[in-house]
Write a structure and sequence with these properties.
The complex is a heterodimer. By secondary structure, chain A is of the alpha/beta class. Chain A has 11 helices and 12 strands. In chain A, strand 7, helix 7 and strand 8 form a beta-alpha-beta unit. In chain A, helix 1 packs parallel to helix 10, helix 2 crosses helix 3 and helix 3 crosses helix 9. Chain B has a domain of 297 residues: Alkaline Phosphatase, subunit A (3-Layer(aba) Sandwich), CATH 3.40.720. Chain B has an 8-stranded mixed beta sheet with strand order 4-18-5-17-16-3-11-6, with helices on both faces. In chain B, strands 1-2 form a two-stranded antiparallel ribbon. The radius of gyration of chain B is 22 Å and the shape is globular. In chain B, 54% of the residues are buried. Classes of the chains: A alpha/beta, B alpha/beta.
C-alpha cells in the first residue's frame, strides 16, 4: 500500500558499477549527484561489483562529498547510505583511480577524504541492498543505471519475489554496456532495458581540461582527483546512461526500435555540444548538503542566569 | 551409571482430577545403558523475547567483534555470569519495519514485521502480515509436543483499535502470527497460563476451581497417586529430578497465590486481568518460570514472549521512573531522559537474566535446558528516538543443542535481513525452509567452528 499523504518524490536511481575500472564511472556518479542536488532525482542505492574495499570507500567518499552523508534511501534522511560491495572476487583489485584519490593527504598527514569503510562489514551485500531500495520506491518511479558488468544485478534477480518488485517499481534499466544488457535480458530482467550504443560514449569526450577550469575552484574534489590520474579526456557512455535515466525526454537522446525488451540509446549529433555542457555543469556542481528532517538532536540552550532579585525596600 | 528397571515413555503424564502434569526428560526415558549420554537426543527449543521502543544502543553493543574482552556493556551486565552463553549479532536489519511509502507508524510496523519478515498492511480493521517464523517451526514440529507453541506477554492483549498512526493494535500487541491475517495473542494472566499448562484442557472447570481454591490445595495434591507410583519406577537421580521439578511447580503456585493476595490489597486504578501481579518483576518471573517448566517437560519447544507491547508508554515507578517508556525514548539526545531509557533496558535485562540462569541451572543429559535452547532477546527498533530499523539489538542465548558458539559478538554486513537469522534457527530446529520473509540466505558464523 502506498501512503497517500505525501507527494510522489523525484525518480529514485539505483547505481551499480565496477567503480575503479574507468574514470568515466566516477564522472557518471558525479553527474548523478549533480542531478540529485537539483532535486531531479534521488540516489537511493550505490553498489560496486569490484571486490575491493577501496571501490566501496570511493563510492562513499563521492556520496559524502555531494550529499553530505545524507540519504533518502529508505525514507530516512539522516543517515549514511550503505554502499553495496560484491564479495565474490570476480572483479578483484585496487586501481590507481581508487588509490590515488583515497590516498591523498593533507599537509599535516591526515587523509583528505574521510570514509567509514575499513572492513567488509562496513558495506552491504548488494542483492539485499538493491532489493530493499526497490521496496521504498513508488511504482514506476525508479531507474537502474548499470555501469559495468551485471554481476550484482543478476544476483538481485535470483532473490525470491524480486522480479515482480522490479516490474512494479522500475521504469527502465540503462546499461552502459550492450553485453550486460544482453545478459540481463537473457536472465529475465522484467523492466524495459536501454543499452547505450558504444558510439554514444566515444562521440562526446569529457575534457581533462576541466581540471584547470571548472574543477579548479575546488581545493579537493574526489572525482577531479580520479580524472587527474591520467589527465586524459574520458568517454561519456556511462554519463549518458545516468543523464538519460533522469532526463529521458532530453532532445539529445534518441531510442532505437526495441529488439526483444531492449532499445539502443543514441545521440542526436546536433545536440552533442549542449550535452557536453550539461555533463560538465552537473559533474562540477557544488555539493548541496541536505538537512536531516527527522528529529534532529536539540542543542540545549545554556541556562539563563536567574534574574537578579529585587532589593528589599529600605524602610 | 544407574540402570533403571524399566523404560518410561517420554509422554508419561501425572494425572488426577482435573489436572495433568507433563514430566521432564528422565534418564529412565532413554534406553537403558545409554540414558543421558546420548548426544543430540534432547529436544531443541526456540524462544523470542521482545522488548519495545528500541534500546540505548550505546550501552548494548560490545566494543569489539569476536570473543568478548573486558566487561560487558551496561545493559548486558546482568548476563555477566552467562557471558559464554550469549552471542550478540550486530547489523541485522528489518527492512519491512521501515516506512516504505506507508508514512508514520514505525512501532506498528516494526513489531508486525519482526517475526514475519513482511511489511504489515496499514489498517486498523483489514489486518495483514505473514506467518511468523515461530509458527512455521510450530507447524512442522508442534505435533511432537502438547502445545505446538506458547505465546506469553506481560502487558496488553487488545487486538482491535489504532495503536500507531493507523496500524491496528494487532500489530503492536502480538509477535506470533498463525497466518497472514491471524495473530496469536499472548497470554498475560499467570493463572490462565498455569491452567493452560497443567489443567486438564484449557482450564479447570468452575466446580473444580472452586474446590481447589476453597481448600487452597496444590495441583500436586491431585496427582499424588500417580506421583507415588512413578517414584517407585525411578532411580535416585530421576527421583531427585522429579522432586525438583514438582517443587518448581509448587513454587509457581505459591507465587500465584501471593500475587493474588497482593492484588487484593492494590488498587491499580485501571482494569486488570484476573491474576496479573501488580509487580512487573514478579509477573516476569511467574511467566518465565512457567515457560521453563514447559521446556523442562517438553510441553512445547516454541515460545514467543512479548515483554511489553511495542510503543508502550508503561511507567516503571518500581525503579523510580514515573515517565512513560515510549515518550522517554524520544529523548532528543537529552542525557537525563537517555539515562532513564538505559535504566529501563537494564531492568528488563535483569529479569531476563534471572530466567536464563534458571534455564542454565537445569541439567538435561550432558547439557542444560539453556544449552539445548536458542533464546533470542531483541527489539524491532534499534534507536527508538529516530526509529531506525537497521543494526537491531539482537542477542541469542543458549547453545542450540551444541550448535552455537557463544561468548562473542558477530557483526554482519549492513542491511543483512534478520530473517536470515530465523532461517538459520529453523535449520537447527530441524525445519528446512527454502525461503522466509525478506531473507537473502542464512547467516554465517553462528557455528561452533
Amino acid at each position: 500500500m502506498q501512503f497517500r499523504g505525501q507527494g510522489k518524490p523525484s525518480l529514485g536511481v539505483i547505481f551499480d558499477s565496477d567503480m575503479g575500472s574507468r574514470v568515466e564511472t566516477a564522472l557518471a556518479l558525479a553527474v548523478l549527484y549533480g542531478l540529485d542536488g537539483k532535486n531531479e532525482c534521488r540516489v537511493v542505492s550505490i553498489s560496486s561489483s569490484r571486490t575491493s574495499l577501496l571501490s566501496a570507500a570511493y563510492c562513499e567518499v563521492v556520496g559524502r562529498y555531494y550529499a553530505g552523508a545524507v540519504s533518502a534511501a529508505f525514507g530516512a534522511t539522516s543517515r549514511t547510505l550503505p554502499v553495496g560491495l560484491a564479495a565474490d572476487g570476480k572483479i578483484p583489485g585496487e586501481t590507481p583511480l581508487l588509490t590515488t584519490p583515497l590516498g591523498r593527504k593533507n599537509p599535516d598527514g591526515s587523509i583528505v577524504y574521510q570514509h567509514g569503510i575499513e572492513k567488509l562489514i562496513d558495506t552491504a551485500e548488494p542483492p539485499g541492498l538493491i532489493r530493499n531500495a526497490f521496496t521504498a520506491q513508488h511504482d514506476q518511479n525508479a531507474a537502474v543505471v548499470l555501469a559495468g558488468p551485471p554481476l550484482n544485478l543478476l544476483k538481485v534477480l535470483s532473490l525470491p519475489g524480486t522480479k515482480e518488485l522490479i516490474a512494479a517499481k522500475v521504469k527502465y534499466l540503462i546499461c552502459s554496456s550492450p553485453l550486460a544488457a544482453k545478459e540481463l535480458e537473457a536472465a529475465g530482467w522484467p523492466s524495459p532495458i536501454i543499452s547505450v550504443s558504444p558510439s554514444v560514449g566515444s562521440s562526446v569526450l569529457f575534457p581533462a581540461s576541466t581540471l584547470t577550469k571548472e574543477f579548479a575552484e575546488f581545493p579537493a574534489h574526489p572525482v577531479a582527483d580520479a580524472l587527474r590520474v591520467k589527465s586524459q579526456d574520458s568517454p561519456t557512455g556511462e554519463l549518458a546512461a545516468v543523464l538519460y535515466a533522469v532526463r529521458s525526454t532530453d532532445k539529445a537522446f534518441a531510442l532505437s526500435e526495441p529488439v526483444g525488451n531492449t532499445r539502443q540509446l543514441m545521440l542526436e549529433p546536433a545536440e552533442k555540444e549542449r550535452l557536453l555542457a550539461s555533463y560538465i555543469e552537473l559533474a562540477t556542481a557544488k555539493p548541496v548538503v541536505r538537512q536531516p528532517r527527522f528529529r534532529r538532536p536539540i542543542v540545549e540552550e545554556p541556562k539563563k542566569p536567574d534574574a537578579p532579585k529585587a532589593e528589599p525596600s529600605k524602610p | 551409571m544407574m540402570i533403571t528397571k524399566k523404560i518410561l515413555s517420554r509422554r508419561t503424564i501425572l494425572r488426577g482430577a482435573g489436572a495433568a502434569i507433563a514430566l521432564p526428560m528422565f534418564d529412565a526415558m532413554a534406553p537403558a545403558m545409554n540414558s543421558s549420554s546420548i548426544p543430540g537426543k534432547a529436544p531443541i527449543r526456540m524462544a523470542f523475547t521482545y522488548v519495545p521502543n528500541g534500546l540505548d544502543m550505546r550501552h548494548w553493543t560490545p566494543k569489539e567483534d569476536g570473543a568478548f574482552a573486558g566487561d560487558l556493556p551496561k545493559i548486558l551486565k546482568p548476563m555477566e555470569s552467562m557471558r559464554q552463553d550469549i552471542t550478540i549479532l550486530s547489523n541485522l536489519t528489518q527492512n519491512n519495519g521501515r516506512a516504505l511509502l506507508d508514512g508514520a507508524g514505525d512501532h506498528g510496523r516494526c513489531c508486525g514485521a519482526y517475526l514475519t519478515g513482511i511489511q504489515p498492511r496499514k489498517s486498523t480493521a483489514d489486518i495483514k502480515a505473514g506467518i511468523s517464523a515461530d509458527q512455521i517451526v510450530a507447524n512442522h514440529i508442534g505435533g511432537q509436543t502438547r502445545f505446538p507453541s506458547l505465546e506469553v506477554g506481560l502487558e496488553d492483549a487488545r487486538q482491535a483499535g489504532d495503536c500507531d498512526s493507523g496500524y491496528s493494535c494487532a500489530y503492536t500487541n502480538n509477535l506470533a502470527w498463525r497466518s497472514e491475517t491471524q495473530p496469536l495473542p499472548p497470554v498475560l494472566d499467570p493463572r490462565a497460563f498455569f491452567e493452560r499448562l497443567f489443567g486438564k484442557g484449557a482450564a479447570l472447570n468452575p466446580e473444580e476451581r472452586l474446590r481447589q481454591t476453597k481448600y487452597r490445595r496444590s495441583i500436586l495434591d491431585f496427582v499424588t497417586g500417580d506421583t507415588k507410583k512413578l517414584q517407585g519406577d525411578l532411580g535416585p537421580t530421576d527421583r531427585r529430578k522429579l522432586d525438583e521439578y514438582l517443587s518448581s511447580i509448587r513454587e509457581i503456585e505459591r507465587q500465584l497465590d501471593k500475587a493474588e493476595k497482593d492484588n487484593a490489597q492494590v488498587n491499580p486504578g485501571m482494569p486488570k486481568p484476573y491474576g496479573v501481579p501488580a509487580d512487573f518483576a514478579e509477573h516476569f518471573k511467574l511467566m518465565s518460570d512457567m515457560i521453563t517448566v514447559a521446556f523442562q517437560a517438553d510441553m512445547s519447544r516454541v515460545v514467543t514472549f512479548l515483554v511489553t507491547r511495542e510503543g508502550t508508554s508503561r511507567p516503571y515507578r518500581e525503579i523510580g521512573i514515573p515517565d512513560g517508556h515510549h515518550p522517554l525514548t524520544h529523548h532528543q539526545g537529552k542525557q537525563e531522559l537517555l539515562d532513564k531509557v538505559t535504566k529501563i533496558n537494564e531492568y528488563h535485562m535483569v529479569q531476563f537474566a534471572k530466567w536464563m540462569e534458571k534455564l542454565k541451572s537445569i541439567k538435561e543429559g550432558d547439557s542444560t535446558i539453556l544449552g539445548n535452547s536458542m533464546i533470542v532477546y531483541g527489539a524491532g527498533l534499534s534507536d527508538g528516538n529516530r526509529h531506525t530499523h537497521e543494526n537491531l539489538p539482537v542477542m541469542i542465548v543458549g547453545g542450540g543443542g551444541n550448535s552455537i558458539k557463544g561468548g562473542r559478538r558477530i557483526t554482519y554486513r549492513k542491511e543483512t535481513p534478520i530473517s536470515n537469522l530465523y532461517l538459520s534457527m529453523m535449520d537447527r530446529m530441524g525445519v528446512k525452509v527454502e525461503h522466509f520473509g525478506d531473507a537473502t540466505g542464512r547467516i554465517d558464523g553462528l557455528n561452533l567452528a
